Amino acid sequence: MTDDEQQQRALAAVGREVLAFELETIADDLHVEFNRAAKAVQNADRITEDDVQAVQHTLERADMFVDTLYDACPNAERPPRLAELMTREEGIEVTERSSRNPGE
Q1: pTM for the whole thing?
Q2: In whole angstroms, what is the distance from residue 93 CA to residue 98 CA?
């Protein structure tokens, strides 16, 4: 094995370790944020915009890692993205409708 091959393998190993660490971290973060929201709901506490933004930010970070994992599986068939299923306006309409009628 050449020095270049050894270096590439070493860098790949570091990359795997970093990715594994990031995935574990995001899993913990998702757990924490959803537990906070669940406790607020259970205790009938007011959920603030900051609470919702924290969950959204964590989900966006997780989504970034989903893309990374799909990149590692070139033969995987990715599910369609929301933007491919509906327009932005339709998404806003659905969101507004569900906020007016939360039980439906």
Answers
A1: 0.62
A2: 9
d(Cα 104, Cα 87) in Å, to the nearest integer? 21
Buried b (16+ CB within 10 A) or exposed e, 12-41: eeeeeeeeeeeeeebeebeeebeeebeeee
Length of the chain: 104
- Which DSSP letter does residue 86 get? S
**Lowest model confidence (mean pLDDT) among 20-29, 39-48, 57-66, 95-104:** 95-104
Residue type (1 letter), 101: N
17 within 8 A of 24, measured Cβ to Cβ: no
